[in-house]
Specification:
Strand content of chain B: under 5%
Structural class of chain A: alpha/beta
Distance between the termini of chain A: 31 Å
Distance between the termini of chain B: 37 Å
Radius of gyration of chain B: 19 Å
Helix content of chain A: 10-25%
Number of helices of chain A: 10
Shape of chain A: globular
Strand content of chain A: 15-25%
Shape of chain B: globular
Oligomer: heterodimer
Number of strands of chain A: 18
Order of helices and strands of chain B: HHHHHHHHHE
Number of strands of chain B: 1
Chain lengths: 565, 191
């Protein structure tokens, strides 16, 4: 029989993705009975990774989802590289979770415990002091209410937990993490590094920093380099909520996890000015249940969090809970990308590698980082990700020949190729936003999100430099057939780095969250996922909101102990 | 999806390859009078009929023959092509593939006076080498487009098969990562 303890908790965390997972782990470890609510399906570590290590001939369509199924169920999700026959079980179906694209936008949604921490690219980079002062210095957006120094101990705290492989470089624009051994570059990447660094003294080419274990860590085995982490990893060798954070939380005995739990709104008591809990729709039974807690963390992803907040209307908050600033849903930024260059390297036929390295190379930001690198055509900057490899059998599609000689040619490893893709910071723009659509709803009657995001003149100017610079570096490194690209047809959002929809700031009139990720308007309501970002930097955001989540969770526990919330 | 009717020309070309002879007026009338298989109807039994699947397999085997490892037929590429035509092609694309098979039949007729299956291995190989050369020299005729498409299907079907992944190429072992090692110690591509 259900007792009151089944509905009353110290803390509720909405969302079990990257941020939610860290909040759940920190809150439980610090003594709070915590209810973790996840919209998506259950996922069991190990047994749930049903395609792990499967070869193409072991799945019905050799890894590709049939066109009819893509069109019916995944018209938006199909735009991401991560969706395949091997991973579709982790994704939301657009047919159940529709979005409205006022302008072209790709909101890539998971629908599983662990969220996109199951699927993510695992690249982890600290943001730097200049990232936290950028808004103040050039006037775009609002000043962050924290500085790098506030986060530094929390970066270290989460890095020691998750395990980060990388190399210490001492770069001011890319502070070092606490590192496990770096992964090795291959022969062609080494030449890229040597020649680009020789030809461009302002640039570095480093191995990627990645949340994958290069050595055993905290009882988790090192990576065995099978390749596609996104299918799930039974050895928990990459960081994910299900593989790493939830076991730690469960070990405290203070975790209650409910999947298939769509949080429709946060409940608010105007008399006490507190969030009292959440209203949940069971996605299997459609039963509606309310859960109560002393503190609520919303970590439903930048857009997902905005959606819940906007849907939490009351007399005190007619436009959504904690939204007196009207900033919830606005300033939807991301990293613009799909721009860079590719090339082909002659030679190095005598070199190869063993293992599918789940990591690439990285070129840290070198634009607008000091007086010497100041540009007059755009603000902020970008970094490159990329990698070199030897081409495989698909190159045969473009080759003449049939018969034994042709087969023999495809048996051999092919020529070396490289790609570089830039990730660029976007400036905060209030008109880039998500709102609740007045008509379209998801399969459970909750309003769908409507997206409006356009690229700016700053983005476009930066992209011209990104493509030209990538090509220049590849030519310097000795590549032939260097081919710059700029795929502006790819809509915003598809790089999965959406941010900013409940931004931190010093002024409650223009921001949603204070320096501790508490809502200015509702002090026991916290937001620690990418919604909280006041700017986007150019480094991947996950490590930063992991640190922010841990810091805010510790603060929430202290505030509760002190009776302040 | 609306039913796709074969044109008269397509029907005639289908007749030509399956019989290996110019269609008689009586046969043509009979075939044209028969109900046309819509793309949806074809789906249940396989996009290609038995004869077409056999021909697709023969063409694939010429591209990737049995050597010290099985070739396309040993790897089930003809069955893969059936699956791919079903899953990844719309009605128009399926009919273009079938039409392409018929054009191979026409080319065989011209080259060695019979349907493709009835030619000797050398006759077949010489024909397909010529078709392949033309297709990869920038020619954009329907036959060249078919051949490039078929070659892509063949490679995908072969190199994602168990034969392709485990025998022809080397499966990547699980274990430590070695980023920069001699190719000589491995000698072939990882799958």
């Amino acid at each position: 029989m259900a007792g009151p303890n089944d509905y009353e908790f110290d803390a509720i965390v909405v969302g079990t993705g990257m941020a939610g997972g860290m909040a759940i782990k920190e809150l439980t470890e610090r003594g709070l009975r915590t209810l973790a609510l996840e919209r998506g399906r259950p996922l069991e570590h190990g047994a749930g990774y049903i395609t792990e290590h499967k070869r193409p001939f072991e799945v019905p369509h050799r890894g590709r989802i049939p066109d009819a199924e893509l069109e019916r169920d995944y018209p938006v999700q199909r735009r991401t590289y991560a969706l395949s026959e091997y991973t579709k079980q982790f994704f939301a179906k657009d047919s159940e979770h529709p979005i409205v694209e006022e302008t072209p936008y790709s909101w890539i949604q998971s629908d599983v415990v662990g969220g996109r921490s199951q699927l993510w690219g695992r690249q982890v980079y600290r943001w730097s002091p200049m990232d936290f002062t950028a808004n103040r210095d050039d006037g775009h957006g609002v000043d962050w209410p924290i500085r790098y120094e506030d986060l530094e101990p929390w970066y270290e705290h989460v890095e020691r937990f998750i395990g980060v492989s990388g190399s210490a470089e001492g770069l001011p624009q890319l502070p070092d993490s606490v590192f496990l051994a770096p992964m090795e570059m291959n022969a062609v990447e080494k030449q890229v590094r040597d020649r680009v660094e020789a030809g461009f003294p302002d640039r570095r080419v480093i191995i990627g920093r990645v949340a994958v274990l290069s050595e055993p860590h905290n009882g988790r085995a090192a990576c065995h380099y099978c390749g596609p982490c996104e299918r799930g990893c039974s050895t928990a060798s990459y960081y994910s909520t299900v593989g790493v954070a939830l076991p730690a939380a469960a070990a405290t005995g203070r975790l209650t996890l409910k999947a298939n739990a769509l949080v429709e709104s946060v409940r608010y008591d105007a008399a006490t000015n507190r969030a009292t809990g959440v209203r949940v729709i069971d996605t299997e039974t459609r039963e509606v249940t309310e859960y109560r807690a002393k503190v609520v963390f919303i970590c439903a992803s930048a857009a997902g969090t905005a959606r819940i907040m906007l849907n939490s209307k009351s007399g005190a908050f007619p436009t959504g809970i904690a939204n007196s600033s009207d900033a919830v849903g606005r300033y939807l930024g991301d990293h613009h990308c799909r721009v860079g260059a590719s090339g082909r390297m002659e030679g190095f036929e005598d070199r190869y590698y063993r293992g599918n390295r789940p990591n690439g190379i990285y070129i840290p930001r070198f634009r607008n980082i000091d007086a010497a690198s100041r540009r007059d055509d755009y603000l902020r900057g970008y970094g490159f990700q990329g990698g070199a490899s030897r081409s495989g059998w698909p190159r045969g599609r473009g080759m003449a020949g049939i018969g034994p000689d042709f087969k023999a040619r495809l048996r051999a490893a092919g020529p070396w190729t490289i790609w570089l893709q830039a990730f660029g910071e976007t400036l905060p723009n209030p008109d880039n936003r998500c709102t609740l659509d007045p008509e379209v709803k998801d399969a459970w009657g909750m309003p769908a999100l409507r997206f409006h995001v356009t690229r700016s003149a700053n983005d476009l100017a930066m992209r011209r430099d990104m493509a030209a610079t990538a090509a220049e570096m590849l030519e310097t490194a000795g590549f032939a057939e260097v081919d710059p690209y700029d795929n502006m047809d790819d809509p915003p959002g598809s790089n999965n780095h959406e941010m900013g929809t409940a931004r931190m700031g010093r002024d409650p009139g223009t921001s949603v969250l204070n320096a501790w990720n508490q809502c200015h308007d509702v002090p026991n309501l916290f937001v620690t996922d990418a919604a909280c970002m006041a700017s986007t930097a150019c480094q991947n955001p996950s490590l930063t909101f992991l640190a922010i989540s841990a810091r805010a969770a510790a603060r929430a526990v202290d505030l509760l102990k002190d009776g302040a919330i | 999806m609306p039913a796709m009717a074969l044109t008269r020309r397509q029907l005639l070309s289908v007749i030509a390859w399956s019989t290996g002879a110019a269609a008689s007026p009586a046969l043509t009338r009979a075939v044209l009078a028969a109900p046309v298989r819509a793309a949806e109807d074809i789906a249940d039994g396989g996009v290609l009929d038995a004869g077409q699947q056999h021909l697709a397999g023969q063409l694939a085997e010429h591209i990737i023959p049995a050597t010290d490892t099985p070739g396309a037929l040993g790897a089930g590429v003809d069955r893969y092509i059936q699956m791919a035509l079903q899953a990844f092609h719309d009605g128009k694309e399926r009919l273009e593939y079938i039409d392409g098979l018929a054009r191979i039949g026409e080319a065989a007729q011209k080259a060695f006076g019979s349907g493709f299956p009835d030619g000797s291995h050398e006759e077949q190989a010489a024909l397909l080498e010529a078709v392949d050369r033309q297709a990869f020299a920038g020619d954009d005729s329907p036959l060249s487009r078919f051949w490039r498409h078929h070659k892509g299907l063949t490679l995908a079907g072969y190199y994602t098969s168990e034969v392709g992944q485990l025998e022809e190429l080397r499966p990547m072992p699980m274990g430590p990562f070695d980023g920069d090692i001699p190719y000589a110690g491995i000698g072939r591509a990882w799958s």
